[in-house]
Design goal:
Keywords: Membrane, Transmembrane, Transmembrane helix. The chain is mainly α. Helices cover about 65% and strands about 0% of the residues.
């Protein structure tokens, strides 16, 4: 029996299950991380025509945590200068929001917020993948680009899901989740599994 198991060419893990390819693991982890960053902002942009401040603040929190970690460790050479700039962009948005004249409606700040979220979120996901995933640097460039493409594709799909939310959600689904109802939502009861 042991001899038969050793003839099997597929690599086995601890419990006799096939091992997951490290390239797939790193690519999927980078893609999943990126999609978690972009999902909600893209959906709310589609559903409400706005990106909610909590999504931008979540990006700010992650970027600031990585930035401060690098500064505390004096790891200036660990990232290219563009990486450090990307990590400071969410803080720039916060500073602009504080100093912008609120009485006159500084509408260009909203455009910066949209660009920061839609462009900054995939860039931040890419940067975090480089920092947090040990296998990421070993991935061939085409796999890293695929992870970015998956993140962008999910962002576009989330935007479309938000835009066409009335096809699968109702106004009651938004109400019961604690969100405002977006314009054009479908009337009806909320979705229940039981």
């Amino acid at each position: 029996m042991v001899g038969e198991a050793s003839r099997d060419p597929s690599p086995k893990g601890k419990h006799g299950l096939p091992e997951i390819d490290p390239t797939l693991r790193a690519t999927a982890a980078a893609s999943a991380g990126g999609t978690l960053v972009i999902l909600w902002p893209a959906f709310t942009l589609g559903a409400y025509g706005a990106i909610f401040f909590d999504a931008v603040l979540a990006i700010w929190a992650v970027a600031t945590a990585v930035l401060l970690s690098g500064l505390m460790l004096h790891a200036r050479g660990a990232l290219p200068w563009a990486g450090w700039v990307a990590l400071t962009l969410p803080s720039v948005w916060v500073v602009l929001a504080v100093v912008a004249p609120r009485a006159h409606g500084f509408r260009y700040l909203h455009y910066f917020e949209v660009v920061l979220t839609l462009v900054g979120a995939p860039a931040l996901a890419w940067l975090l993948s480089r920092i947090l995933l040990p296998d990421y640097a070993e991935l061939p460039e085409r796999h890293r680009l695929r992870a970015v493409a998956v993140t962008i594709a999910v962002g576009v799909l989330a935007f479309l899901l938000g835009k066409f939310n009335y096809l699968f959600l109702t106004c009651a689904d938004f109400d019961i989740s604690g969100n405002n109802t977006p314009p054009g939502c479908a009337h009806g009861p909320p979705f229940h599994l039981l």
